[in-house]
Amino acid sequence: MAGLQDDTPIPTALTVHQQSRVLEIGYADGRSYRLPFEFLRVLSPSAEVQGHGPGQETLQTGKREVGIVEIEAVGHYAIQPTFSDGHSSGLYAWDYLHHLACNQDALWQAHLERLAAAGLDRDAPMKDAASASGGGCGSGACSH
After folding, report:
1. Per the CB 3.0–4.6 Å rule, which of 12, 65, 70, 83 could disulfide with 87?
2. Which intervals of the chain form a coiled coil (predicted)?
């Protein structure tokens, strides 16, 4: 199961900084990472964001001011944040969080490049993908 490989670093501390909109993740070896809420939200591992396969991703916009209103532990392998825009279906396994932390700069740059290629910016309002396409996760058209 994701997040349970022998070599996956397990966080020893998770701190939500509401004012700066950052999730701080600490590890036993002293390493610490600060992941902005917007970064976590636009790279949510949920099917709603990632799709059900390559090329089905939904480009996320308008998330600069998103907050985290709650974080729930999922077993001993993941967290499930609820964001202020209502998104709560992403399970952030320890291995995925570590991947985000270690690759934050490259992942963020790739997101910005996808926005630019689509002629969008970070603050553009989200298009309602479900109504535009007639379905999709979150619309009741799929089981995720």
Report:
1. 83
2. none
